[in-house]
């Protein structure tokens, strides 16, 4: 029997672990039954036997032996005189099984069959890949960086499948090198030009949720529920958590002893500030907690229009608004309310100021602590002093003070 070398085609099947054996056999059978129909007009009296291990197949033709001169259908019947040429012991009425030599199909037909088979395998692998990752949307994955481009990063999973992390799904401070492993969640599966494209994300709220699930056993076990997460990737995030077990402090469990649990997540998110708050159905209390670290003096809430006016002392306004307005923006997203911030005493209105801790992504925390030690709690309180005065009062070097002043000035220039 002259066999088509199908080893490469079968190897493709083996490489695609998601394609099961019955599907493989069915595809090969369909391809060669199409070949039989083209040559004989029907495939009803043919058996296609696939040997996936050896990488070949056998085709047998079944015909009924009839008396000479009584042949009516050459496709399903064979005359006795022809049958005994194959095997002398045959008798009329028996069924003749005869192996079909693939050479009889012709070289062109065989090549066409191989191409069709390769195409079908490719389509099956793509479908299997799409299904595999559609079932895993929202799941945390670790993958290796293969190529870094301006607009996206190409990664490979453990099976060598290509994954894409677009620039829009990267944290602004992310920096990747070829060969390193990074974590992200599977955001969605797109199909472009009939090819599946698996999109990953590190900016989605679900990414933070999965990291919390890994670090906090109580979340993984269902003792603590994450009600909502809002993020400004790389800057700040707010996480509302709730526990139905009164013995568990959900905020304390998420933060961990001396911040042990949250610190690893903060590092993964490139020093993103994470505010973990207790969820409540009391909207006034929820708004108050969502504006942390600011302390609110009084409220005026319109529940029908989902609008809240919040009054604070002058030194708390900058904390409530946050740098670039991020804190209040996230508070609005978390609560679902439009929040307006007002100073408690409009008559003694002060200039807009920003707490130094809002600059912790650009200024080291020990530098901020040193400035606060000498009474400089806000950006303007630092800028009011000369560089010489700051150098005299603190233990900071001249270059460090210059960097701090530059960062603070740039912020007010933006405003």
TrEMBL record:
Q: Give compartment(s).
A: Cytoplasm
**What the protein does?**
Participates in both transcription termination and antitermination.
| Homology family | Belongs to the NusA family.
Superkingdom as given in the UniProt entry: Bacteria
Q: Which GO biological process categories is it annotated with?
A: DNA-templated transcription termination; transcription antitermination
Which SUPFAM superfamilies does its entry note? Nucleic acid-binding proteins, Prokaryotic type KH domain (KH-domain type II), Transcription factor NusA, N-terminal domain
Indicate the transmembrane segments per the record: none
Sorted alphabetically, which Gene3D superfamilies does this protein's record hold? Answer: 3.30.300.20, Nucleic acid-binding proteins (2.40.50.140), NusA, N-terminal domain (3.30.1480.10)
One Gene Ontology cellular component annotation held by this UniProt entry = cytosol
- PANTHER family under this entry? TRANSCRIPTION TERMINATION FACTOR NUSA (PTHR22648), TRANSCRIPTION TERMINATION_ANTITERMINATION PROTEIN NUSA (PTHR22648:SF0)
Predominant location category: cytoplasm
Domain spans labelled K Homology? 233-295, 304-406
The alphabetical list of record keywords is: Cytoplasm, RNA-binding, Transcription, Transcription antitermination, Transcription regulation, Transcription termination
Output the Gene Ontology terms for molecular function: DNA-binding transcription factor activity; RNA binding
Which proteins does it associate with, and in what oligomeric form? Monomer. Binds directly to the core enzyme of the DNA-dependent RNA polymerase and to nascent RNA.
- The name of this protein is Transcription termination/antitermination protein NusA
């Amino acid at each position: 029997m002259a066999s088509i070398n199908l080893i490469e085609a079968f190897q493709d099947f083996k490489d695609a672990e998601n394609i099961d054996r019955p599907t493989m056999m069915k595809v090969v059978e369909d391809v060669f039954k199409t070949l039989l129909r083209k040559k004989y007009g029907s495939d009803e009296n043919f058996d296609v036997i696939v040997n996936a291990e050896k990488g070949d197949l056998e085709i047998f033709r079944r015909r009924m032996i009839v008396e000479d001169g009584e042949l009516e259908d050459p496709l399903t019947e064979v005359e006795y005189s022809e049958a005994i040429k194959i095997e002398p012991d045959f008798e009329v009425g028996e069924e003749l099984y005869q192996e079909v030599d693939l050479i009889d199909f012709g070289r062109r037909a065989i090549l066409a069959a191989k191409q069709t088979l390769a195409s079908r395998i490719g389509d099956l692998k793509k479908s299997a890949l799409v299904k595999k990752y559609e079932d895993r949307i929202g799941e945390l994955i670790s993958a290796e960086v293969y190529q870094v481009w301006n607009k996206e990063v190409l990664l490979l999973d453990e099976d060598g499948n290509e994954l894409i992390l677009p620039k829009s799904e990267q944290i602004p401070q992310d920096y990747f090198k070829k060969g390193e492993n990074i974590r992200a969640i599977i955001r969605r599966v797109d199909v472009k030009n009939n090819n599946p494209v698996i999109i990953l994300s590190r900016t989605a709220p679900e990414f933070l949720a999965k990291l919390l699930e890994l670090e906090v056993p109580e979340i993984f076990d269902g003792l603590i529920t994450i009600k909502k997460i809002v993020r400004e990737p790389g800057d700040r995030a707010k996480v509302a958590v709730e526990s139905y077990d009164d013995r568990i402090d959900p905020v304390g469990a998420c933060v961990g002893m001396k911040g042990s649990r949250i610190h690893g997540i903060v590092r993964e998110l490139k020093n993103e500030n994470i505010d973990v708050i207790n969820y409540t159905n009391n909207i006034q209390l929820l708004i108050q907690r969502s504006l942390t670290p600011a302390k609110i003096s009084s409220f005026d809430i319109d529940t029908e229009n989902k609008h809240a006016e919040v009054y604070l002392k002058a030194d708390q306004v900058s904390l409530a608004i946050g740098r670039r307005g991020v804190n209040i923006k996230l508070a609005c997203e978390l609560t679902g309310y439009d929040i307006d911030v007002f100073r408690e005493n409009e008559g003694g209105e002060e200039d807009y100021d920003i707490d130094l801790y809002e600059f912790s992504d650009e200024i080291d925390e020990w530098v901020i602590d040193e400035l606060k030690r000498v009474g400089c709690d806000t950006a303007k309180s630092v800028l009011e002093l000369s560089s010489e005065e700051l150098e005299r009062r603190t233990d900071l070097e001249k270059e460090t003070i210059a960097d701090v002043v530059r960062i603070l000035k740039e912020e007010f220039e933006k405003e």
